[in-house]
Amino acid sequence: MTRPPTTTGKAAPQTTAAEYALGVLEGADRAAAAARMANDPTFAAEVAEWEARLSPLAAEIAPTEPPPTLWPRIAAGLGGGPGLWNSVNFWRMAAAAGVALAALSLTLGPNLRPPPPPASRPAAPAPSRTLIAKLAPAPDRQPVVVAALDTNSGELILTPVALAIPADKSAELWVIPAGQKAISLGVIDPVQPTRMPAPAHLNAANRPGAVLAVTVEQPGGSPTGQAQGPIVGVGGFVES
Q1: Beta bridge partners of 217
Q2: CA proximity to 212, closest of 111, 144, 130, 121
Q3: Rounded to the nearest 5°, which phi and psi values hold at 24?
Q4: Same domain for 108 and 44
Q5: Nearest Cα to Cα of residue 196 among 159, 145, 237, 144
Q6: How does pLDDT run across 186-223, given as a tens digit for each residue?
Q7: For labelling, which of 88, 130, 134, 165 has a CA lying 20 to 30 Å from the CA of 44?
């Protein structure tokens, strides 16, 4: 008949590592465990693992000083005398129970926590809108400049189509909000497309009645801030 294995009274390696991490080893046992950590990397790793598992639990518990009468009452309830608290076997049993409880808490803890609130979805970007203005000498004429305004990026692009400007003159762009005076947006290239950030007051061009216009001015544009030369193209914004 096979005999059950005999016990030597020594704790298993994992139990010893847990007891060391819990701080319940004393005297020669604790010194032996500390010496083993210095020479046994596997054992040292077990201690470190238990310390990492148990330290978050200890951090959440506020220290409390028990009343002097608590320990005698516990000893009387367990049927043990003062020698019970000096028993190594008792503390090893308590340590094993504490380790089991800690491991159970680490295993079940995430499952017992309430689910995190659903992450709020970022607001969908506004749909891109492009407004087009065809600047022509007259409603029945071909445009000389086509202006495109991206309402999301706020960029204004002027593309010359048939803009004939004398070499000693400049083409100047204006926005004319409904019921207001013309506001200069600067000189544009009569041949190549011109890109510019749409000025804040160009927002008025989105309102009914606002128009863009191109005039022929002296080099560098009108020095007075008001149109002086002839209008060669005018047109309002419409959504493309």
Answers
A1: 170
A2: 144
A3: -95, -10
A4: yes
A5: 159
A6: 999 999 999 988 876 665 445 556 788 999 999 999 99
A7: 88
Radius of gyration of the chain (CA): 43
CA dihedral angle for residue 72, residue 25, residue 106, residue 48, rounded to 10 degrees? 160
pTM of the predicted structure, to 2 decimals: 0.47
What is the domain range of residue 183? 130-239
Q: What is the pLDDT of residue 149?
A: 84
Answer yes or no: is 92 within a domain.
yes
Q: Round to whole Å and give the CA distance between 88 and 24.
A: 9
Task: Using the Cα atoms of residue 25, residue 28, residue 31 and residue 33 in order, give the sign of their dihedral.
Answer: negative
Question: Helix, strand, coil: what percent of the chain each, to 5?
Answer: 35, 20, 40
Tell me if 136 is assigned to some domain: yes
> Of 83, 112, 141, which residue constitutes the final position of a domain?
112
Tell whether 5 is covered by a domain: no
117, part of any domain: no
Separation CA 226–CA 88 (nearest Å): 100
Number of domains the chain contains: 2
